[in-house]
Amino acid sequence: MSWRSIVRGAGRVFALIGLLEFLSAQVRCPTTKEFSHIGMDRAFPSARFIPDTLWVPVVFHLIAQDSGGWLEERRIAAQVRALNRDFAAAGIQFYLPRYGPQGQPTCGVTRHLSPLAVHDWTFQEDTLKSLVCWPPDSFLNIWVVDEMVLSTIGYARVLGDSEGTPGVVLIKSVVGDKVGVQPPFDWGRTAVHEIGHVFSLYHPFEGGCVGMNAQTCAIEGDEICDTPPQSQPHYGCPPLTTNTCHEAPPDLFDPVDNFMGYVDDECMTRFTSLQIQRMREFLFQVGAVLISEENQQARGRNEPFLSGCAAVASLSYSLPSFHIRQAGHSIFMEAEESISLILLDAMGRMILKKEGNQFFLSNLPVGLYIAVVEVRGKPLFFRFFVI
Q1: Is 314 part of a structural domain of the chain?
Q2: Which one of 49, 81, 179, 345 has the fewest CB atoms closer than 10 angstroms to its CB?
Q3: In this predicted model, what pLDDT tens digit does every residue of 243-274 receive, in sequence order?
Q4: Strand pairing category for 54-64 and 92-95
Q5: Which long-range contacts (CB under 8 A, 24 or more apart) does 359-363 make?
Q6: Residue 303 and residue 340: Cα distance in Å, rounded?
């Protein structure tokens, strides 16, 4: 049994994640095209991004009924690590800012005592977000409440939304990564899924069995041609061979392991290449200020945390000295420290793992690749095309 609903309130459609008591099936938010007011050029041209880590500052606003109910900062740090793990193949990384909207020092966390900690999203969305909101063109806001009505665990609004404040609202029990988080929502992927919506993605089952051929897949359904349509959401951990729509040849399996579906956290594992392209293009167009170098400097991405930020201080985003160059069919990586490399294909699948500062292009098929290079224990991301 599963539950999802679209509730109309104050003239809007609200995206929800629901979990009915006593149900073990994971449920995700039923965001629709009507809900997502995406302001951008809908053409997604092919692009070559080298190197291409996009840095997004994220602030957590903790809303509690009493001071004994705060979410632990270690769970916030774990959530940021989970986001960076799952968005790595997309070349998108998140960091807690050192400086707030007025340049004030911050740990990337705010705290507010309010009865809104028991959140009724049917009419309180604007009230909650007006309690505290940092400029959404410069910060990704995540509001964390104690609980929500109707067993809802979260909802999101797209960046640049023309009818509401962008960002994510979550209940605190789904924030983190495994430790202290209850299965099946225990890998931090409720936030991953919702931020996918913030960055313009729909569900693979948007509209059901529509966009069934090469002529319609980019304009119907989720508008992503490498996520085959599926007739309805899936729950739990369904077989990868599940197939509910029979599109024009080739007829492909449903993308049951996609981050934008409703399956259990441990069974959703990837964004597709075209989902990645869409998110990145959306950020370049609509989130240009958010990911800009100027915003990174203003938020102190490469600066150390204050001494009072001990619980999140392990999240360091300063990058070690590193250079990359191509010579013929070889890629050379140069750093003062030892280097390890993981090479992923466009679907996020690992195809190479090695130590050392060189790898060869000659054995790679034509396509897009993502390299995750670890120097001094810190991951660096870049992508390249083999043509």
Answers
A1: no
A2: 179
A3: 999 998 899 999 999 999 999 999 999 999 99
A4: parallel
A5: 359/330, 359/331, 360/329, 360/330, 360/331, 361/326, 361/329, 361/330, 361/331, 361/386, 362/329
A6: 25
In 85-225 the beta strands, taken as DSSP E runs, fall at: 92-95, 109-113, 118-119, 140-145, 147-148, 152-157, 167-171
144: left (phi over 0), alpha (psi -120 to 50) or beta: beta
* Domain boundary residue, one of 238, 264, 288: 288
| Joined tokens for residue 328 | 């013929």
Same domain as 242, residue 375:
no
Residue 181: strand, helix, or coil: coil
Q: What angle do CA 343, 52, 86 make, to 5 degrees?
A: 60
Which structural domain, as residue segments, surrounds residue 359? Answer: 323-386
Look-up of token digits 């001494």? 307
- Total structural domains in the chain? 2
Nearest to 221 by CA among 275, 167, 263, 168: 275
CA 179, 183, 186, 187 dihedral sign is: positive
Say what the pTM is.
0.78
At 322, is the pLDDT very low, low, confident or very high (cuts 50, 70, 90)? low
329: domain CATH number is 2.60.40.3080
